[in-house]
Each structure stands twice: as C-alpha cells, then as structure tokens.
Predict the structure.
Amino acid sequence: MIAMPWNRSILLTGLLLATACARNPVTGKSELSLVSEEQEIALGRQTRDETLRTIGEYQDPEAQALVRRIGMEIAKASERPALPWEFHVIDDDQVNAFAAPGGFIFITRGILAHMNSEAELASVLGHEIGHVTARHTAQQVSKAQLAQLGLGVGMIFSSTVREVGGALSQGLQLLFLKFGRDAESQADDLGFRYMVADGYDPNGAAEMFRTLERVSARAGQRLPEWASTHPDPGNRVAKTQQRIDSLTGTGRNPKTLKDNEAQFVRMLDGMTFGQDPRKGFFRGNTFYHPELRFQFAFPEGWKTANLPDQVVGQSPEGNEVLQLQAAQGTPQQVAQKFFQQQGLRAGQVTRGTVNGLDAVTGDFSAQLEDGTPIAGTAGFLALGSHTYALIGFAASSQGRSVSDRFGTVLRSFRPLTDPALLNARPATMHSVRVPRDMTVQEFNKQYPSTVPVEQVALINGVDGPSSTLAAGRIAKQVQGGLAKQETAPDGAR
Ligand SMILES: [Zn+2]
C-alpha cells in the first residue's frame, strides 16, 4: 500500500452508533463494545461484497472447497458457531489472510502458493477465525468508529475519489485494520487450539511461521501485508514449539495428527502464480493493462502500485501523488462532476484529444482536510467503453513544474497495441514428485521454473537453493508467465 491522504482515515458513516457492553465469547469477560453482533455481521457482509467486487474470488472450485471445508470445520467447533461464516480464496498474489467482522475470512492465492500442507492452511484459518471469535475485528471497528467521531467531514479528496470511481471504499479499508500484539498472540493461541481440535498436526503452524519469516526476509519489492501486520514470525515459531511441547503432556501426540502434504500440493496444480499480467502490470514505470488495452507512464523514480480498482504513484519525496481509475460516463460528464465539486476551484478546462482519444483536461486547486493547499491536474480520457480519470496533485507550493510533469503523464496515456503484451499470461504452479533426494538447485535444473531458484525454495517451504527436497515428496515448479524484463538500476533504460 502506498500511503495516500484519503485512505489514512477510516470512514464508517451510515452506521448507527450504539454503545453496549458485550461479553467476549472467548475470554468470557464483558467489555465495552460499540458494535452489536448484527452490526458486526453487516460490516462483514459489506467487506465481503467489496472485496469480491474489487479483488475478486480466485476461480478454482477445488481450492475454494478445501478452504471452505477446513474453515467451516474449525468455525463450527469454535465459541461462535452460529455466525454466518464464509471463507473465500481471493485473486491476489500477496501473501495475506484476513478476517472481517462477523466471520468473513479471506485468504489470497498468494498465501496458498506458499503453503505445503493442509495443516499449514488450517493454522492460518484457525488464526483468522480466532480474530473473529475473540471479537478483535469488532473491537477494531469500535476504535475506528471512535476515531471517526473526531474527524472533520471536509475530506475533499476522499469524496472526490469515491465520486469518480470508488477508491478504497469503506469495506476494503476494514481489511487494513491492524491488530495489536496481544490480539495477535491470542489469535495464535486460539488458532493452535482450533487446528489441533480439528485433527491437524500443529507442526504445520511452525512451518507456516517459518515460511512467513522467509517471505518477510525476501520482501524487497513488495512488502507482504500479512507479514507486515503480523509481528515477528521468528518469535512465533518458538512460541508454537512451546505449545507443541506442552501438548505431549496432554496425551495428544502431534505425530498421530494429519498434515496432508501431498494432496494439498497436488491441489495447487495449475494455480496462477505471482501477479496476473492480464490485470495490469508495470515494466519500469510504464503501466500496461492488456485486458483494458491501455498503457501510460509515471515519472521516473516514482513508487507505484496496482491496487484493486486504481493505479497509484507517489513521488520519491512523497509530496506528489497521481492516480488512475475507471469511471462511468463520457469524459465530459465525468469531468463536469469532478470540476464542479464543492471546495474545488477549477482552472481552464479544455476539450481535445490525447493520442487520438477524446479527452477533457484541466487544472484545479483545493485543500486537503488538514488545510494543506494543493494544486493538481486532471484528465479524463475515453477508451473502449470506459472513461479513465487520471488525477495528480501536490502541495500547491510546488508550482508550475508539477502541472508540466502531470501533463507529461497524461500525454503518455495511449491504447496498448503490442501483441506480445496484449497476450501476456500468468505463470502457473505444477506439482512434481521428487524422484530422489535432491537440493532445490538440482531440482530446478531437472524441472526448471520461470522464477528465481530462491523463490522455488521459498514456495517449497525450505531455506534456500542448497536445502534438500526429500525423495517422494510432491514439490512445486513454476512454469510460464511474463518473461522478466531486465531493468537497469536507477531507472536508466
Ligand atoms: Zn492476525
């Protein structure tokens, strides 16, 4: 996530605030709660609808069914069996899992790709279920609502952005709620208990934390959300080991519990791996969208991100921001709506063409909610059945150069015609029975992957290229995908 001024604050309007004391289902203690169970469920449903609308469910009935089966087994045996539990695999390559209030659990195809057994999956589902049963999700909402009370409503840019296309809306913002360390370790505790009760080997939890630790260590380009919101996996490996050790005293032997490694990895066969280029991708600072058939370029050196319903960029200093979204209507209609917003002063608005596309462009000035005056440029371009809104702004003291820079970005927007890019397909995972003990390096020589060998080690749950894959195990290989582009350092191309 790139920190944007408009999604820093959580908007929870339209919710009735009802103060109540609720009993925590897990601890049995009563605690202050602003959210009733009905509201919790309503918020969860809203989050689900927006998550599925913007990120989308991953189309794989087998994976969905497995996640739903294990999730429901655990949830039905939990302290809150009557919630309308739902489990969804979403089409996102980030290593992430999250719980929305009311029992709506989401796990990404990205985290599935890094798992090697049903036991690991059960540990993640158990942890997320724990956030719901212990009402962490509801408590976070209470805090968000409380915070909201102290905020002004004059947040021009959040309303602008929602008007134009939907940005990170209320439901999605809930996904980025962070839980405290205590809540995390309580969820770990509950998750451990739940997975063991469901018959899964708790060593899967330790394996999962080790993998998360490796993912964090490798996070150069994209910081995995789950790892960033979940503190210190290393410490959690040790804690999990303590929990496993204490199990032996209770007469439960982890060795008699199931992990279902081989069938799990086989289930991943054919699954999309890494980003799906059909949904847009960057090469250097140029963004290509094969399905929507357009491309445009951010200034050199900018931080960029392809979010579910917008593409955003931020200058290295963080004081200039630019975003692209699809909007309903003709460029004239969308421009009119944008420039006529309350609190926004439009400069000259021009109708013309950009690279042969109908376009309306203009400068504007406004104020952010904290009073910072800003100046920006907005362009609305028609391509296919969509109008694209490209909006850039900076603190107005930046002056003329900003408008020129945004103008350059605007003029880079054009139809994508390169057949190689239009036909880009994602990489997929394939399961291979390891014929003899071999290192990841040897495995990769015999069964080459289109991702770096370090990543092959990572998704197979081992430390690195020199780690051994045991004979007979089912390992993962990655095939196909968009050929990696050699990028020169410092953006020099
Ligand atoms: Zn958590």
Residues 424-486 form one domain.
